[in-house]
Design goal:
With about 375 residues, the chain is of the alpha/beta class. Helix content is about 30%, strand content about 25%. It has two domains: about 230 residues, P-loop containing nucleotide triphosphate hydrolases (Rossmann fold, 3-Layer(aba) Sandwich), CATH 3.40.50.300; about 100 residues, CobW-like, C-terminal domain (Hypothetical Protein Yjia, Chain: A,domain 2, 2-Layer Sandwich), CATH 3.30.1220. Bound molecules: guanosine-5'-triphosphate. It comes from Rhizobium giardinii.
Length: about 375
């Protein structure tokens, strides 16, 4: 038998920020046909929440560290796959029937695919068994118009799952489907609410074949191969790209994380030690959403609430849409009961969001004068601004 037939199938689950990848994965992992599946998840931002939100046994979940799969953590993906194979071959873990890689919402799938198909060591032990892309029926059309990553995710898919159909108008769903057909004429499309969308069969796509996709797909994959062989693109053992430039901020420590998502897109996190008053949280979220929803590509949070600190609240914001919050029965990891909020924004300064959060959670700002108070002072000289 050829090595490829013996190889462990790898599925790539992708889709733009907040499209519904983790929700679909949670439903899929309940299918008994997906036991002995390893899930590799990757989040943009170093405060990771996805591992808390994937409802599978934690042994099957491997988290790749801070950075985006298509950029800085590609080397880590290859190492992880090699390590999994090594552990299977030395009987340290049960043989895996499948590996699912959930990418970040901002991932360009081309380099991720190339890591599996184009790496000779990995290709001996694994075979790429398709790309499943989740597209959000509410934000999908505008996201496709504004983000090239989303376009690539759709064009490269073997299967397209449309999520949130019940939240969108029938006309919006029809227009979205027409656009998806243009970008990917052959991938079957299915409504994510249907039970068959959450069956293991979704992943049975057969060996990945770029020839079944629009011509651009072959070119994108070729570009990745070209990038791999260009020494100018390889630094520190990781692959970077010519047009990479992205600021990745966290906890006030600013560091440059070179990757391919423009300078206008930022990821940062807010961590807060004390439980938050429900009213203050509501006001913070409302203000952020109503005034800046379009710039808020994604917000994900686990929040300690003052009305019942033992039961945290899970918040999901996707552009201007805030999904109904979910109250958990208990903390997923009782050793860490801090509020953690991950935000991915476009043209929305981190300082603005932090100040707003501090204002609603009552954190005193002692490092600078209260500008608003000074401007509002009736004795202030008209026109004079600090
Ligand atoms: N009504 C409805 N809500 C959905 C559906 N799919 C996802 N959601 C909600 O959308 C929000 C984001 O879903 P996730 O599954 O976390 O999305 P994701 O693509 O994994 O997000 P990122 O990993 O941050 O890119 C959550 O509040 C989900 O409950 C759906 O089909 N219908």
């Amino acid at each position: 038998m050829s090595p490829v037939l013996n190889a462990v199938p790898v599925s790539i689950l992708t889709g733009f920020l907040g499209a519904g990848k983790t929700s679909l994965l949670n439903r899929l992992l309940k299918d008994p046909d997906l036991t002995d599946t390893a899930v590799i998840i990757n989040e943009f931002g170093d405060v990771s929440l996805d591992h808390l939100l994937v409802e599978a046994s934690s042994d099957g979940i491997i988290e790749l560290s801070d950075g985006c799969l298509c950029c800085t953590v590609r080397g880590e993906l290859v190492d992880t796959l090699a390590d999994l194979m090594d552990r299977m071959q030395t009987d340290k873990i049960k043989p895996l029937k499948r590996v699912v890689i959930e990418t970040t919402g901002l991932a360009d799938p081309a380099p991720v695919l190339q890591s599996v198909m184009g790496n000779p060591v990995i290709a001996q032990s694994y075979r790429l068994d398709g790309v499943v892309t989740v597209v959000d029926a509410v934000n999908g059309l505008s996201t496709l118009a504004n983000h090239e990553e989303a376009l690539k995710q759709v064009a490269m898919a073997d299967r397209l799952v449309i999520s949130k159909v019940s939240l969108a108008t029938p006309d919006a769903v029809i227009s979205l489907k027409a656009r998806l057909r243009e970008l990917n004429p052959r991938a079957p499309m299915m409504d994510g609410d249907l039970p068959e969308a959450a069956k293991a069969k979704l992943f049975h796509c057969g060996l990945y074949d770029p020839a079944t996709k629009i011509a651009d797909v072959g070119r994108w994959l070729q570009d990745e191969v070209a990038g791999e062989h260009d020494p100018a693109h390889v630094h520190d053992g990781h692959h970077h790209h010519a047009h990479c430039d992205h600021d990745h901020h966290d906890h006030g420590h600013h560091r440059h994380d070179e990757n391919r998502h423009g300078t206008d897109i930022r990821s940062f996190s807010i961590v807060h030690d004390r439980p938050i008053d429900p009213m203050a949280l509501e006001m913070f979220v409302d203000l952020l959403r109503s005034a800046h929803g379009e710039k808020l590509l994604r917000m994900k949070a686990i929040v300690a609430m003052s009305d019942n600190p033992d039961r945290p609240l899970i918040l999901h914001g996707v552009q201007a849409v805030f999904h109904p919050p979910q109250r958990l029965a208990a903390w997923p990891d009782p050793s860490d009961r801090r509020t953690r909020m991950v935000l991915i924004t476009k043209d929305l300064p981190e300082a603005f969001v932090r100040d707003l959060f501090d204002a609603f959670t009552g954190k005193p700002r002692i490092d600078r004068p209260d500008r608003q108070a000074l401007e509002d002072n009736p004795l202030a000289v008209p026109g004079l601004r600090m």
